[in-house]
Amino acid sequence: MEILDVQAESKNSFDAEKFQKLSLKFTPSQISFKNLVYSVPIRSKSKKKESEHIDPASSKKKKTKIILDNITGSFMPGRLTAIMGPSGSGKTSLLNLLSGRISSSKFEGGIWLNGRRADGGSLGLVSRFISQDDIMLSTMTVKEAIEMAIEFRIKDISREEINRRTNDAIYTLELEKCQNTIIGDSITTGISGGERKRTSIAMEMATDSSILFLDEPTSGLDIYTSHLVVKLLKKISRSGQTVVSAIHQPSSDIFNLFDDILILSEGLVAYFGPQKDLVPYFSSIGYQCPLYTNPADFIFTDVLNPLGFDPVQNTRQLNRLINSQNLSDTWNFSSQAKILNASVENPLLDPLTPLNFTSSVSSFKQFTLLTRRAYKSVYRNKLALPTRLGQSLTLPLIMGVVYYKSNLKPIETQIQVILTPLLIIYLK
User: Fold this and answer.
1) Contact 222, 251 (CB under 8 A)
2) Closest by alpha carbon to 219, among 192, 200, 246?
3) 39 near 64, Cβ under 8 Å?
4) Torsion of CA 78, 223, 201, 114, to 10 degrees
């Protein structure tokens, strides 16, 4: 199996023997997709790429913007894949579709897990989506955030197993020095931006996820931290997880860390294959990458935008559409595309069974965890705690004054009815 070869190649890049001893357990998953078409309705005044169709039910024309146009491909376990393309090319939309965040009724085509048709429910159980913005409670420590993620996702797990998974994730993402530091926010000092990103990744990878989807994991990070994050993602993939990341324009060092590259342009596939074959492929179709040039820069400037910047927006958009369609047509007729289609139709792994899916915790357990987290958050927020205590003491006092010696006359009753909700809204 290819994952074993990949792991063997990676032994020189990190402590592979120690990494293989980690307790993270998951089922290797190949996620494949074929003929994905996704579009969204737009306003009639929009000047973006549009297509019109007749709604049989209403007999009215509806304008839509095509986000993804007939996308086919496959992401393999044990490999780190980058989805590249200019803004608006469909990178995030593809991640949303494959992670089950968009209902299957809103797009055409199919998605498979190890050869078995997948729906939004099964995709959500085996995959984790890490958004561009790190959404975490500022009053929790790094270690507590990872522990909470594990307890929320895995049913009937012991404290010993929680501690083991947490420590493994902290080691893997190199968070040992900040594990007991609060996450913080714009007001409270906490961990750095790179540590926040690694914490959000650790929270997802520690929960039996076979597939990790990341949307711009290097956004807002300096070049050193960006390289560290992608290097750690490659380290995670070497355990057998499928790691897919949307990334805008990486440096040459970061670009070389990826195993596979998917290039999207105007919702169409321009290339999907091994990173080492990207430059030779485009050279074979007439795009020669200059010596000592970052391949990512070459793709964005010479391949996706060969005519340069046109000051006229309509002309610029038309040139992009024509160029994207030509690149897609060339790719679809290439031998590499045929090999890719074969891997979609003939998966290398056994189909997943219900035993491969992690059961969710009960609603009561979730309520208990949220209550405990909220209590800790209120107690640790030194700025908000006095205000909350003051509100708790002031509200009963004011309500008592409003209702004090009330004879329930009509006018007094009306005043009480009006003041009560206003007081509650004001104090909140």
Assistant:
1) no
2) 246
3) yes
4) -30
CA 194-177-221 angle, 5° bins: 10
Cα–Cα distances in Å, from 50 out to 119, 170, 311, 416?
A: 28, 47, 21, 56
Measured distance CA(174)–CA(197) in Å, rounded: 12
Helix axes 363-380, 142-153, angle to 10 degrees: 170
Report the C-alpha gap between 313 and 302 in whole angstroms. 19
CA distances from 319 to 183, 251, 266, 323, 324 (A): 46, 26, 11, 6, 8
- Distances from the Cα of 111 to the Cαs of 22, 73, 99, 131, 356, in angstroms? 30, 10, 10, 21, 17
Q: Are 75 and 244 in contact (CB under 8 A)?
A: yes
**Residue with structure tokens 């009815």?**
417
| pLDDT tens readout for residues 252-294 | 999 999 999 999 999 999 999 999 999 999 999 999 999 889 9
> Measuring CA to CA, which residue among 42, 91, 70 is closest to residue 53?
42
Decide: residue 335, CB within 10 A, 0-12 exposed, 13-18 middle, 19+ buried: exposed
d(CA 391, CA 412): 25
Q: Which long-range contacts (CB under 8 A, 24 or more apart) does 274-280 make?
A: 275/82, 277/336
pLDDT at 94: 94
Please choose, from the candidates 173, 193, 174, the residue with its C-alpha nearest in 3D space to the C-alpha of residue 183. 193
Give the full edge-to-edge strand order of the sheet including 60-75.
Answer: 51-55, 60-75, 31-41, 107-113, 116-117
Q: For residue range 206-227, what is the model confidence (pLDDT) as tens digits?
A: 887 889 999 999 888 889 989 9
Instruction: Please give the biggest Cα pair distance in the chain.
Output: 92
CB-based contact 259:243 (threshold 8 Å): no
Task: Say if residues 146 and 199 touch (Cβ distance below 8 Å).
Answer: yes
Taking each helix axis as running N to C, give the angle between helix 159-172 and helix 193-205, from 0 to 180 degrees, rounded to the nearest 10. Answer: 140
- CA end-to-end span of the chain, whole Å? 59
Site of tokens 């032994």: 11
Q: 228-238: b or e for each residue (b if 16 or more CB lie within 10 Å)? A: bbbbbbbbbbb
